[in-house]
Specification:
The complex is a heterodimer of chains A (234) and B (86). Chain A has 234 residues and is of the alpha/beta class. Helix content of chain A is 25%, strand content 25%. Chain A contains five helices and eleven strands; from the N terminus they run βαββαβαββββαβββα. Chain A is globular, with a radius of gyration of 16 Å. The chains are: A alpha/beta (234), B alpha+beta (86).
């Protein structure tokens, strides 16, 4: 299982993701520079958090033109696993790999805090190690994580079960009070219709070791590793 | 010629910056404000053989990069030889 971690100028969570993959999970790690036009045989591509290209114009707007993004689009079209975290989610929306957009938090504040997420899909390669409606405790760290989609897109997402994570309280109830940024329907993460491209605002790489306050994030990394094993076996 | 592009959040998109500025204006006594929307202003210096061509090019730029059609609307003026056209 080989993870590719994309590095744009301004990316800041690449080393955190790399640490989890390499040191905690023990999987193979490959950093992919934004100018790379080759995904170097990676099985899952992570587009990590940060401020790619300084978030100039809009978050993710410039990053989508990077040479590596064209390859990631082709890879996703072929069914390859693509996982956007925080700024990576914003990049995937701008690139059209996921529907909707992420706008300024309704509070106008940058929010760096722990959140609870209810897992609504466990049949995906990204969540196979989670249990049905499990509540994960994973931190967010963003100023623009307010998920928006037009009403038609939003109802299509709901009908097709493409909402993977929703902000909730500690017991799993999806409430306004548990919504840290104003996201429509408390959306914290979505997947494309095919189920191979995931975007999420919370940072699983920041809670994959007990020393950092929690290990719920590691479940997602382990899920991806386990799913790749299944593909190899079958 | 110069193209002046204005990008604004779509009416259906909540604009927390606009709401906050509206509240600030109300605090200062400007209570006649019913709505504030905050967007971006982009000025482009470009060469084109005609206004028609410039319009087509700027339209394409807005669609492909300058605005995100999911959340934003755009409009622009083209100024040729000092004459401003909307």
């Amino acid at each position: 299982m080989k993870f590719g971690v994309v590095v744009f100028p301004g990316t800041w969570s690449d080393r955190d993701c790399g640490w989890v993959i390499d040191q905690v999970l023990g999987a193979e790690l490959q950093y992919l520079w934004h100018k790379d036009a080759d995904l170097k045989g990676c099985d899952c591509i992570i587009v990590p958090g940060g401020f790619a290209y300084g978030d100039y114009l809009r978050t993710g707007a410039i990053a989508r033109f990077a040479p590596v993004m064209e390859k990631i689009g082709d890879f996703a079209d072929r069914g390859g696993l693509v996982w956007g975290i925080c700024n990576g989610f914003q990049v995937l929306c701008e690139a059209g790999l996921l529907p909707g957009a992420l706008i300024r938090n309704s509070s106008l504040e940058f929010r760096c805090q722990w959140t609870n997420l209810v897992v609504e899909r466990t049949d995906l390669p990204f969540t196979s190690q989670c249990t049905e409606r499990e509540v994960l405790n994973i931190p967010i760290s963003h100023g623009e994580g307010n998920y928006f989609a037009d009403p038609a897109t939003l109802s299509r997402l709901e009908q097709r079960g493409q909402v993977v994570f929703r902000y909730c309280d500690a017991t799993g109830r999806v409430t306004n009070g548990a919504n840290p940024n104003g996201s429509l329907h408390n959306i914290a993460g979505i997947v494309n219709a095919r189920g191979n491209v995931l975007g999420m605002m919370p940072h699983p790489e920041r809670c994959s070791e007990a020393e950092l306050g929690g290990t719920d994030g590691l479940k997602l990394f382990k899920s991806v590793a386990a799913s790749a094993m299944k593909v190899l076996v079958s | 010629m110069i193209a002046r592009v204005i990008v604004t959040p779509k009416p259906v998109v909540n604009d927390p910056q606009g709401i906050t500025v509206k509240q600030g204006l109300a605090t200062l006594g400007f209570r006649e404000i019913s709505d504030v929307r905050i967007g971006k202003y982009i000025e482009l210096n470009l060469e084109a053989s005609s206004e028609h061509e410039a319009r087509e090019r700027v339209e394409a730029m807005c669609k492909q990069l300058l605005a995100n059609h999911v959340i934003e609307d755009y409009r622009f003026d083209i100024e040729m030889d000092g004459h401003k056209r909307r």
